[in-house]
Amino acid sequence: MDSVFGLVVKRIGMGILTLFAISIIFFMGVEALPGDLAEEILGQNALPETVAAFRKELKLDLPPHERYFSWLGDLMKGDLGKSLANGRPVVDLVGWRFANTMFLAISAAVIAVPVAILLGIIAALYRNSLFDRAISIATLSTISFPEFFVAYILIALLSVQLIIFPSISNINDQMSFWQKIYAIVLPCLTLTLVVVAHMMRQTRAAIINILASPFIEMARLKGIHRTRVIVMHAFLNALSPVINVIALNLAYLVVGVVIVEVVFVYPGLGQLMVDSVSKRDIPVVQACGLIFAAVYIGLNLTADVLSIISNPRLRNPR
Amino acid sequence: MAFFKLLRKSPIIARIGLVMILLNIAAAILAPVIAPYSETEVVGDVWMPMSSEHLLGTDHIGRDMFTRLLYGARNTIATAFVITMFSFAVGISCGFFAATLGGWSDLILSRLVDILMAIPVLIFALVALAIVGNSIPKLVVVIALLDSTRVYRLSRAVAMDIEVVEYVEAARLRGEGTWWLMRHEILPNAMPPLVAEFGLRFCFVFLFIAALSFLGLGIQPPTADWGGMVRENSGAITFGIFTPLWPAGAIAFLTVGVNFIVDWFLNVASGLQD
Question: A90-315 sits in which CATH class?
């Protein structure tokens, strides 16, 4: 058990180190500009005083390492700086939107995970059947579609042709839980479709991989019933790759959510980030980027840790 | 010749994919010849329905949708192609250098790539675009650099395998320089996996550009671009006008085509005959 614990600790350490490195890149990226950010944003015609004031506002007058550590210190205290666009603290802008984004992503995940795994297992068991081929073409097409294409098709069908769901998902705190769920049906469905396609294909591949291994063939040759082979022999061994597939695809949701939020004008973190990029509101973009990065790395970390724990072979490294 | 032999044995899905890609390339190359109007010319009313004059109707300010779609193919595919080429140039040369030199340069490059690959390209690209601002050259550089990390991984791994083979050793003992080794020994032998990867990366970059333009951060109007055209016309959908589905469908059409072929390639390469 010692080595498992060691592996897990090492993996978590690596994750934290990576996040730290990314924060350095995000915050030092400003240094890579010829001239500096204040001149770049205010343009050529800005008065020197304005540029100087703006530079002070961004703390560009401090040397880079000092700026980074003062920012890191503020971050630990929960202070993410101020938005350049409206002067409000970034924490106020980000907080509730992050909750909204998580709400959307989790709703999509709750539907997508069981459906994808079930379809993946069925497709793997009845490999090369009509069902398998049909679903293979369907998922391959869905993967190739950009998220906004899926989203607009759903809007065209379910919100314009049949007027069932709203095409704009505006939610606020006054709404009850079910009202919120009703408002996010379409974005949730879009994300689910895209994620299910990815997840199902990878689950199918993982299960086929397991079913092709010698110990399964042995079990079959012994005359064990098909169901028993799957439940007792294949399932436990498939657990580790399937957990990996789930976590990686949940991480994929992090990116999908940005575009889907823009399509449905959903008040989430992705929408805020895209708006802030076009306004070049650097502190907000950096904060959003860091949150997305942390969630993504966290999910990948979970996948690795779970697969270390659930895979007996990894417990005894040579 | 080998290609045609392979093609004859290919499944119907792969052939459909090939036709889909060729159609797109034809549209991109022949756009000025086929297009009935010019790229940014306003020729009619807003969101006119399909007619013999305007095959796919008109867009949000009355430009011909069919013309825009053809020019969009040209702009979007060309941008994606330039980015992919650039990304391969950077990725392959860094990857080969890391593999042949080894030591510190390999360690530093590989760790940097690990960090860049630890989070989604979209998030990195958004932060980078916020910092450097938005124009086509900047866009090309940012996306190509981010994408080259994937090429680096592959070309380094491939070069590592080739690097230890006798003929490379012989060339090295002969006194050939690193650059010569990379160009004359490693590159020709690393071609097949790199060419296959090119298709995949192109598809990814293409979708990525479309997504960025859709977010309003990619290729800027009035240049016709599929992602941007979806964005511009997105308001129409709530009136029951399906104009934005044309460019969105065009994007899907091309990527489905590429994926059909890639899927078949992967099947052939993995030797799975079941």
Answer: mainly alpha
